[in-house]
Amino acid sequence: MKKLGEILASHQPFSEIVIGNAAIARAMLEAGVRVVTSYPGSPTPEIAEALNALPKESQPPYFEFSVNEKVATEVAVGASVNGHLSCTFFKSVGLNVAADTFVQLGLMELIGGMVILLGDDPGANSSQNEQDNRHYARLAYIPVFEPANAQEAYEMFKEAAALSQKRRMPVIVRLTTHVCHAKAKVRFQGWQPRPLDNTPRFDVKNGPYIPISASVFPLKRRALEKLSDVAAYADASSFNAMTDFQNGRRGVITMGAPFLSLMDALEDVTAKPDILKLGIIHPLAKEKTLAFLRQHEEVKILEELDDVLEREIKALAFEHGLPVRIIGKKDIDDWLGEYTPDKVAQVLYKTWPDLLAKDEAKGAPVASRAPRPPQLCPGCGHRSAFYAVKQALKESDITVADIGCHTLGFLPPHQMGQILLCMGHSSATASGLSLFNQERRVVAFLGDSTFFHAGIPGIINAVFNRHNLLLIIMENGTTAMTGHQDHPGVGKNANGATDAIPLRRVLDALGVTNIREVDAYQQSKLRSLVEEALLESGFKVIIAKHPCMLKLTKEMRRRGQFRGRRVTIAPTCDQQHACIAAFACPTFQRTADRQVSAHQDLCIGDGSCLQTCPTHAILAPSDSAAKGGASHD
Amino acid sequence: MTEHKFDIYITGVGGQGIGLFSEALIRAADHAGLVVGGVDTHGLAQRGGAVVSHVRIGPAYSPLIRRGCADLAISLESYEALRALQEYLADAKTLLYYDVRWQPLSVRLGKESPLTDDFIRQECLRRNIREIRVAPESLTDSRMQNTVLLGYLAKEALIPGVKLQHYEAALNDLMQGSMLEQNLALLQKIASA
Questions:
Q1: Mutation choice for A interface testing from B42, B44, B116 by most A CBs within 10 A
Q2: Which residue from A353, A352, A331, A333 is spatially nearest to A343, judged by alpha carbons?
Q3: Minimal Cα distance from B31: which residue of A?
Q4: Residue of chain A minimizing CA distance to B12
Q5: Residue B44: how many other CB atoms lie within 10 Å
Q6: Of the candidates B84, B13, B11, which has an alpha carbon nearest to the alpha carbon of residue B46?
Q7: DSSP sequence for A166-200
Q8: What is the mean pLDDT of residues A273-279?
Q9: How many Å apart are CA A79 and CA A36, to the nearest integer?
Q10: B71 Cβ partners below 8 Å, 6+ apart?
């Protein structure tokens, strides 16, 4: 068996099939990164997995999952101003959380260097929006590299780290979902670990590090000067390269994964447009761009998400009085979704209808039946909780969702959670919903990792300002949605044992006085606690606890302790379908003639469904033999 | 570099081990000396949503296959097999699927009718697609269903240039101990049946 960590730590040059995120971990070793911080969020957590797999003797960077993205950024900044090359990474919307810190970074002399890895998510594969973080880079005067595949991710990270160290400035490497996860054989260079230098080099002489009033302007000037230098560097960089098809008429300027889609979409085209692929996408390599604009009559700006590049290039052409026709986005569709090969073919067809055959541009989209949205796993405590909570609520009550697995409760049949903004918003949004509102009771949900991440201020506010709502904290003991990372309530961090910070004690200390706790599997108790709490005024909290069963069963399987147990359906089943239609564990399957069975591969035998059957026809695994239950699959 | 492109579209449900399956395919193609790449598009699929993996052999750029252009569709589950067939498989190509059914929510809620045995077959006939349906068999671990499909890939030589020894080498890269032994034995049994 190949061990990823050992392979990635090899001193010899090698080639290996890896995803982009794993290639980045090797690049960190070669670049000499000392400190890496993160908060888990798709598409980036596999970077942490690869780092954690590195053997100790390879001197991997110090790594931590910080409490949230803002804290992660700050820890990385602290390391950098002390002389260590650092890196922080998180998902697209994580930058919103980090933004208050992030926008200051361009002003700082980061003597050790610092790379910010952003996992943007065009197509909103696993995010609440598809925000284009290139806007933030412009806002904060920070350069951006954008790789198209795993090979480039590896090479660009090293280049970004070197640039960052040399110019003592933050540098962004912007990844997108299908660059993070794309698998390919990557050629890695040889590498020898350097001796570690732990000297604390923080010195105010490298500053000033206090941006107050007048000192802001020299810092801003310096940030702009650095950025202007990087523009010249971008002009010289081979990451900004032209693919020459000898087409004097048409050209395309693009970047990242859309470049790959473009090459596929042009596969059968004979008169291919020339392509300028930008690898350093901010600041713009002006000379290279101008040369490309001068060489063509028409240039299409092919960019995923927003029109950042289009505006800049149009302004540049205007400034230089160029006759070239620049074609940007044609309609709102061009702003939406990932630029897959199919999407790029559509965009090209709108741009140059003669270039592609219409069929070629369409792809073959067939609407298929029975969509399969993600759902709560068999045995999930959230399902049990939603089932009980729903019974305690009136149709007119308002439920506020937060981020995490429990967000999936918004789907039928539970439909718990009717509004969602971002991590930790629920208590405060629910507080606002409760104002002037005597008729409709307001219930907010919050996960435990999110509680620590951004949930606490909204709770303090609810206590401080005496808001009237019920907060149900769904505590499953992990950061489940992103792959079971530990959080501060667990007693473990990315490096081993640590002191647990029990959620209940935090609530007590914050002055929350109305708190109830229950195991999420105790449905009737939870239901009556919710009914009771909703009769009281003020800020109430119910902690509905059950360990993440996916995590638990995975660990049991790893240890060889998992026994295939499952519930069975007794012949007394009279097909009321509460298990399927109201409880909705994916285990329950129905035949065309309405019979119910428990799925052999899905049921984990947890029994949280037993209470839902009005005729007690769901038999627990140990009862099955005794009562003669049968399975119908 | 291989001359011809061969695109494989793989589907399943979160939890079926599609990531390991596609990794095995990619590694097998690599062991066969082919240029290969791909991507898993999982999103939130760990929670029982549809999972897709694209594997591209030959001179491709994007890791993503175009709709209606796959040379081979493989599914670990029947509803997803139908989806792969309708959305990604080209006419007159091959569909290989393991016939277990994890009903989607709309079927469990009774809003859509369950898939009938005949439906996929008729669709394949209509589009001149070779249908290879693998009937479920009793396995010690349901995740070994994936290995059964690898066995069919080897037995029927469904991926040009990739042979049994390459699938074996791929499993050797990915597993060890008794898990490796069990999977190799199953692979060889199916491939030589």
A1: B44
A2: A333
A3: A17
A4: A372
A5: 20
A6: B13
A7: HHTSEEEEEEEHHHHSEEEEEEE----PPPP----
A8: 98
A9: 9
A10: B5, B6, B7, B8, B90, B93, B94
Which residues, at least 6 apart from A89, have a Cβ–Cβ distance to it below 8 Å? Answer: A36, A37, A38, A44, A47, A116, A117, A118, A119
- Quote the CA–CA distance of B177 and B180 in Å, as a whole number: 5
Q: Are A119 and A44 in contact (CB under 8 A)?
A: yes
State whether B102 and A261 contact (CB < 8 Å). Answer: no
In this predicted model, what pLDDT tens digit does every residue of A33-69 receive, in sequence order?
999 999 999 999 999 999 999 999 999 999 999 999 9
Q: What is the DSSP letter of A62?
A: E
Backbone angles phi, psi at A378, to 5 degrees: -55, 135
First to last CA, chain A: 36
Count of Cβ atoms closer than 10 Å to residue B122 Cβ: 11
Confidence of residue A367 (pLDDT cuts 50, 70, 90): low
Give Cβ neighbours of residue A435 (< 8 Å, ≥ 6 apart).
none
Q: How many CB atoms lie within 10 A of CB A354?
A: 7
DSSP string, A89-111: EEETTHHHHHHHHHTTGGGS--T
The two three-digit tokens of residue B5, written as one number: 């492109």
CA distance, residue B151 to nearest chain A CA (Å) = 20
Alpha carbons within 13 A on the beta-carbon side of A81: 19
Of A441, A442, A411, the closest CA to residue A426 belongs to A442
Shortest CA distance from B180: residue in chain A: A1
Cα torsion angle, A333, A137, A120, A481, sign:
negative
- Are A107 and A211 in contact by the 8 Å Cβ rule? The answer is yes
Chain A residues in contact with B63 (beta carbon < 8 A): 149, 178, 182-184, 260
- Quick check: A163 and A73 in contact, CB under 8 A? no
- Contact assignment for B27 to A17 by CB distance below 8 Å: yes
CA-CA distance, A265 to A263, in Å (whole number)?
A: 6
The CA dihedral of A605, A611, A617, A621, to the nearest 10 degrees, is 20
Give percent above pLDDT 70 in chain B: 96
B49: Cβ–Cβ under 8 A, 6 or more apart, which residues? A372, A373, A374, A375, B13, B14, B43
Record the tokens describing residue A74, joined without a space.
Answer: 């700050």
Alpha carbon separation from A327 to A250, A267, A303, A348, A352 (Å, rounded): 11, 21, 11, 11, 10
Q: Which strand (E) or helix (H) includes residue B131?
A: strand B130-134
Give the β-pairing of A182-188 and B36-41: antiparallel
Residue type at position A281? I
Tens digits of per-residue pLDDT, A152-183? 999 999 999 999 999 999 999 999 999 999 99
Place of tokens 């901010």: A282
Who's near A60: CB < 8 A, 6+ residues apart? Answer: A9, A29, A51, A54
Per-residue b or e along B141-175, where b marks 16 or more CB atoms closer than 10 Å to that residue's CB: ebbbbbbbbbbbbbeeebbebbbbebbbbbbbbbb
* Cα A151 from Cα A184, distance rounded (Å): 8
3-state secondary structure of A269: coil
The pTM assigned to this predicted structure is 0.96
Pairwise CA distance, residues A226 & A222, whole Å: 6
The contacts of residue A373 (CB under 8 Å, 6+ apart) are A408, A411, B49, B105
Do residues B57 and B6 lie in contact, with contact meaning Cβ atoms separated by under 8 Å? yes
DSSP A479: B
Question: The complex's ipTM?
Answer: 0.96
Burial A66-89 (b: 16+ CB within 10 A, else e): bbbbbbbbbbbbebbbbbbbbbbb
- DSSP type of residue A566: -
